[in-house]
Every structure is written in C-alpha cells, then in structure tokens.
Design a protein that fits this description.
Layout (H helix, E strand, L loop, with lengths): L2 H10 L19 H18 L1 H20 L5
C-alpha cells in the first residue's frame, strides 16, 4: 500500500513507456572492425621503427574498412 507500489506497477508494465513494441536493433557480428583495429598499432609501431611497417598498417586498416563497408547487411 505505499506510494511506491503504484510506480512499480507502471514500471513493470511492458506496454508503458516510450519504447513500447520496439525491438533493439543490433548490427550483425563482424570480424572486420577487429581487422581494422589491428592495423592501428601496426601503423604506430611502424612510425616509430620502420616506415614500410607503417605502410603495411595502412593497408591492413584499409582492408578492414573496405571489408566492413562491403559486408552484406543481414536485415
């Protein structure tokens, strides 16, 4: 019987609130962001020690980005 009982019943009602009836959209899982992220430390290491290694890191990042962009969406 307290004032909190009425508030709890409204919060527990799934039809209440602004998100009623809407599912959360999540992107499909992908390995391409991991590939792109692995290229960044390669670039950093290459900038310190060897510019050819930095160029390889840029290639890895670009491959990751293009793979991620061109990946078919599963909707």
């Amino acid at each position: 019987g307290g004032a909190g009982d009425e508030h709890e019943s409204v919060a527990d009602d799934p039809s209440a609130g602004h998100g009623a009836g809407h599912a959360i959209h999540m992107p499909s899982p992908s390995y391409w962001p991991v590939v792109a992220a692995l290229g960044l430390p390669i670039i950093a290491y290459g900038l310190i020690f060897n510019m050819w290694l930095a160029g390889l890191g840029v290639v890895v990042v670009l491959v990751g980005f293009f793979g991620w962009i061109l990946e078919p969406s599963a909707e």
